[in-house]
Design a protein that fits this description.
By secondary structure, the chain is α/β, with parallel strands linked by helices. The chain has a single domain, classed as Zn peptidases (Aminopeptidase, 3-Layer(aba) Sandwich). About 30% of the residues lie in helices and about 20% in strands. Helix 5 crosses helix 7. The longest helix is centred in the N-terminal third of the chain and has 23 residues.
Length: about 300
């Protein structure tokens, strides 16, 4: 064996020995384990959204639909009505639609014991006169240059809040001026639609949204203010920050819807917003929530 071959064998042996030593003594690296992303618990549920549906109550003189929106399934029925004076009080219609949206998205919770009925627009012909649309509208649709009183009456030129069966007369007043109250109590299809709807569900209370007087008014017909009406008035007004007024006496009113409800034993109040241009959203949201909470306990 040559000297060169001996050197090669020695070097090869050294390499083998070093490799064995490295395998024995070199530390084994600890594997890095990536954390598993936390999965949402199957027990976490989205907020419950109240059961909702819509009902066509009837149609206006011009054939426009009058729709009620229902939320919840409880045995206690509460009603909220906007737009009885149509486009003249368009902000009351907008509030009705706003409350519907908030109940649909769960911003306002419906107690299990309560069913809510919202009629955003009882006078769609009057609303069309100032917005020019039969669809859900915004404040931008409103003709701000329209003459005072535009859209207050229905297509028969009748003031619907003078067409109900409480002290009804064929001619009533608005701001001291004469207005038509129809040919008889409930002669107008819009008033008849509300009468039939109320008769179907017999609510424990009804709230009418109007503008503008910045107050909540009680109702009465021939026998004075119902105890339940005072409770409803104070509950809503206290939460909303409106003043309370027992009797509207700025001018004589006959045939109003609230008075008719009082005559059949159903508490009803008139909520008058501060202006014709704003729906007093925060105030009225608070009033609605307080009313729902009060009536969530059967009484």
């Amino acid at each position: 064996m040559t000297k060169r071959q001996i050197i090669v064998l020695v070097i090869g042996g050294l390499i083998i020995v070093i490799g064995v030593l490295l395998l024995i003594f070199w530390p084994t690296p600890t594997p890095v384990i990536s954390p598993v992303p936390e999965q949402p618990s199957a027990l976490v549920e989205e907020p419950a959204v109240a059961t909702s549906s819509s009902v066509v109550m009837g149609t206006s003189v011009a054939g426009r639909t009058i729709t009620a929106y229902q939320f919840g399934t409880g045995d206690t029925h509460l009603m909220f009505v906007g737009g009885i004076h149509g486009g003249y009080e368009w902000n009351s219609v907008l509030l009705g639609y706003q409350m519907i949206d908030e109940m649909i998205n769960g911003s306002i919770s419906i107690p299990d014991t309560v069913t809510i009925h919202i009629i955003p627009n009882l006078n769609p012909d009057g609303t069309f006169a100032i917005t020019g649309t039969d669809e859900k509208f915004t404040a931008a649709n409103v003709d701000r240059n329209a003459a005072t009183g535009t859209g207050r009456f229905n297509a028969n030129n009748v003031d619907l809040n003078r067409n109900f069966d409480c002290k009804w007369q064929p001619e009533s007043t608005w701001r001291g001026s004469p207005v038509s109250a129809g040919t008889a109590a409930f002669s107008e299809p819009e008033a008849a639609a509300l009468r039939d709807y109320v008769t179907t569900y017999t609510p424990v209370g009804v709230v009418f949204w109007h503008s503008q007087a910045d107050a909540v008014y009680a109702s009465e017909c021939e026998d004075g203010i119902l105890p339940g009406t005072r409770t409803l008035m104070k509950t809503y007004a206290t939460a909303a920050g409106y003043k309370t007024v027992d009797v509207f006496d700025a001018y004589p009113v006959t045939g109003d819807a609230e008075g008719w409800l009082a005559s059949i034993g159903i508490p009803a109040i008139t909520v008058e917003f501060k202006t014709h241009n704003d729906m007093d959203l925060e105030k009225n949201r608070a009033g609605v929530i307080a009313t729902l909470e009060y009536y969530s306990v059967p009484r």
